[in-house]
Each structure stands twice: as structure tokens, then as C-alpha cells.
Inverse folding.
């Protein structure tokens, strides 16, 4: 019998469950290695060589090189692990979160100051809120 | 005997720690938030606990994907602040209370909660930001702290029902400890926030304030809320709020006295909620 996963119909949201965790194990453990200052330095010196030491998929390595956090999450990454990449790059959580919406840093910050993103229209796929697939990417381009 | 005198609830946003550490609390962006904690700091000066039992979640710092304990109790003498990738926060070493922690672990495991015992563990912003919010920037934290880490990173996380019942088991454990200690239980994390994907930045004031109302008045009913409601309404990281039910479950059965209630949007990506409840 299949597991009950009632959370697959939320727009713009990937719940990090045991299945995602299995897919992303090596990607996330690579991220953990960046908690050590000497590893951050080695990664920054030659990103591709550092990534090649980890048994990640080619797609996962490319997503890291591209700093494409949405792609990293689709491939099993979790934001708290991916945040170590942001820290290595000197980026804040707000910059990282904003980068996943398509908005500029200023647009995202302004949205948060104005009270954040509304849940209206963003609860279930098929509604018309700003996080729905047909409204991506967000922000002025 | 030891007794639980009060519970404290607060968000533990990392950017709050950065603002404190960099001396930016008076900036226009941050001032309203820190003003909301001033009554709490005053109350804390008059109601200083001997031990804080601090419920929080680790954010991929003490625990990688190698080991994912659902509930881990810190039984060490002390706990180092973790380097989360930006360097460790410049905050004091966290002193534990190994005797009380071991006593609680023993009692709670006998009550069917399968805790993981952590005899060496670093602590991240989930634990140190609440300490900074309530105690400021002292040279040493003014009390012992028992870290209690809950997995809310990898789904499924423990249910609200389980968390409330665990809180009750913790209360029973504390009350059977022979030394006369004043213990507070803190529940941290939340409120609404989502840090990933096209829905990043989600904030839900109605949900959050309803959560605060129900946590105070009817935690039994609130504990029945399924995970999907947290995720859909309060964001994928809003699920952290289940941890508040552990602290609420540790309170006496009669209605608590509300000392302080505060809500503010935003702190970085997050809605900040804060409560202090005293046992009657």
C-alpha cells in the first residue's frame, strides 16, 4: 500500500521527506563539509574538483555550480544543508530564499517588509496565487 | 523537588542572532522586534530559572543526514556553539545540567518516549538565539540549559499529539527530581515561514495568531492539527511550531497565566511569535 503523502499538491513547495533525503544524501553531506573553514577554502579554490570528490550525480554537481537552489531541492537537497553553500558565498538566508522565486533581492525584501507572501491562492496547485507554476518566475524581469 | 514555573515560546530566526551579535538591534528594521522582547527581559530578571529545558531543532549542524534522531536530549556538562558556515556565534559556552538531564531521560524513556542521549553535541542558532533574546549578551549565560533537539527537518516529524504528551512526561520527570530547582521549559521555532521554492516568503498572520490563541487556551485541541495544515498554512518550515506543544504539555493542567504576548512580521523570511506563560 502506498504511503500517504498529502503534501504533493502545494505549489512551489517540496517537502523534504525520506524519499527526497535518500536522493539527496551525498549532495547534502557535501554541504555539511562546508561547515569547516578549511573545506570552504578548498571548495572556493576549485569548486569542480571539490565536488568531484563526492559521489553525487552530474545533475547535482551542475546545480551546485549554477547555484540553482530550486534544482538542488528537486534533486534531494534540503535548504538547511544548502544554506552552507550560501554561507560560503557570503549570502544571507533571505538572499537564498529570494533567489528561488525569480524576484530580485530588493523585490523579495520589499515583499517581506510588506508582510510577506499571502497564502491566498497558494494553498493548492490549480489556484491563482503568485507561487503557482503559471506565474513563474516572479518579479520584474 | 524541582518544579516547572513557566514556559517561554519564541521564534529562533538566525538573522536575529546576527543583528544582536553585530550591534544592530536599534536599527529601524530591528527595533520593533527587540522592543517586543523588552518586557520579557524585565520579567526574566525577576524570574530567573535555575535550569532552562530548551526545546529546539538542529538545522543540519549537530546532526547531518548520517543520524536523524527524532528526539535528542543533551546530557553533557557543556555545549559548544556550532560553526554553521559563517563561523560560530560569539556567545558563551552553554552549561548543561547533566544530573537533571539524565534524570529526565531515564523517566521519559520509561514512559515510552524513545529519546536519543547526546553526550557530546554542538548547539546552533535554534538554541542560542532564544537565549540571546531573553538574556541579552552576558559574559556567561545566567542558568544551566538542557538542550532538547527535535527533528523537524526531515519529514515526517513527530505529531502535535506526540509532542504534547511528551511535554507531560517531561513535567512528571522534573517533578520527581529531588533537588529544589526552578525549571522553565522553552518551546522555540516558527512561526509561519517558508525558505524554499516559488512559495518562499509565505507569512500567515491569521494562522499564527490562531495558533497562539489555541496554544494558550486549548492545547489539547491544537495538538490534533495534522502536519499538512502546518505546511499548507504556515509554510514548509512553519512545521517547527509542533515543538511549542512540548513546552505547553510541560505546563500544569490548570489554565496558565499569560505574562506576555508578542507578534511581529518580518524577521528576515519569518513571522516572529513570542509568549510567556506562568504556572498558577
Amino acid at each position: 500500500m502506498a504511503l500517504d503523502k498529502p503534501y504533493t499538491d502545494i505549489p512551489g513547495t517540496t517537502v523534504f521527506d525520506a524519499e527526497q533525503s535518500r536522493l539527496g544524501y551525498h549532495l547534502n553531506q557535501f554541504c555539511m563539509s562546508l561547515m569547516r573553514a578549511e573545506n570552504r577554502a578548498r571548495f572556493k579554490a576549485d569548486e569542480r574538483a571539490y565536488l568531484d570528490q563526492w559521489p553525487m550525480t552530474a545533475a547535482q554537481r551542475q546545480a551546485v555550480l549554477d547555484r540553482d537552489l530550486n534544482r538542488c531541492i528537486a534533486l534531494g537537497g534540503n535548504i538547511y544543508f544548502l544554506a552552507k553553500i550560501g554561507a560560503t558565498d557570503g549570502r544571507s538566508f533571505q538572499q537564498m530564499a529570494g533567489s528561488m522565486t525569480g524576484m530580485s533581492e530588493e523585490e523579495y525584501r520589499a515583499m517581506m517588509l510588506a508582510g510577506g507572501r499571502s497564502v491566498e491562492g497558494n494553498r493548492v496547485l490549480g489556484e491563482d496565487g503568485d507561487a503557482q507554476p503559471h506565474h513563474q518566475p516572479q518579479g520584474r524581469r | 523537588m524541582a518544579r516547572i514555573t513557566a514556559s517561554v515560546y519564541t521564534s529562533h530566526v538566525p538573522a536575529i542572532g546576527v543583528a544582536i551579535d553585530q550591534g544592530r538591534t536599534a536599527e529601524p528594521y530591528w527595533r520593533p522586534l527587540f522592543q517586543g522582547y523588552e518586557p520579557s527581559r524585565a520579567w526574566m530578571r525577576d524570574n530567573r530559572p535555575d535550569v532552562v529545558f530548551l526545546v529546539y531543532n538542529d538545522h543540519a549542524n549537530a546532526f547531518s543526514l548520517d543520524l536523524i534522531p527524532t528526539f535528542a536530549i543533551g546530557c553533557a556538562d557543556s555545549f559548544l556553539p556550532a560553526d554553521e558556515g559563517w563561523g560560530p556565534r560569539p556567545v558563551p559556552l552553554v552549561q548543561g545540567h547533566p544530573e537533571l538531564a539524565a534524570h529526565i531521560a531515564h523517566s521519559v524513556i520509561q514512559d515510552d518516549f524513545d529519546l536519543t542521549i547526546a553526550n557530546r553535541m554542538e548547539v546552533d542558532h535554534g538554541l542560542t538565539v532564544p537565549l540571546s533574546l531573553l538574556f541579552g549578551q552576558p559574559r556567561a549565560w545566567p542558568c544551566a540549559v538542557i538542550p532538547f533537539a527535535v527533528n523537524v527537518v526531515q519529514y515526517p516529524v513527530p505529531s502535535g499529539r506526540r509532542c504534547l504528551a511528551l511535554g507531560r512526561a517531561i513535567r512528571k520527570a522534573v517533578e520527581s527530581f529531588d533537588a529544589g530547582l526552578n525549571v522553565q521549559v522553552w518551546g522555540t521555532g516558527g512561526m509561519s515561514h517558508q525558505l524554499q521554492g516559488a512559495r518562499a516568503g509565505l507569512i500567515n498572520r491569521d494562522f499564527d495568531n490562531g495558533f497562539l490563541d489555541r496554544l494558550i487556551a486549548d492545547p489539547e485541541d491544537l495538538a490534533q492539527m495534522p502536519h499538512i495544515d502546518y505546511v499548507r498554512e504556515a509554510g514548509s518550515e512553519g512545521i517547527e511550531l509542533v515543538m511549542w506543544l512540548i513546552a505547553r504539555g510541560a505546563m500544569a493542567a490548570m489554565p496558565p497565566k499569560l505574562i506576555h504576548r508578542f507578534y511581529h512580521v518580518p524577521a528576515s523570511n519569518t513571522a516572529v511569535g513570542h509568549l510567556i506563560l506562568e504556572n498558577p
User: Anything to note?
Assistant: Chain A has a mean pLDDT of 95. Chain A has two domains: 16-88, 91-119. Chain A touches chain B through 63 residues (CB under 8 Å).
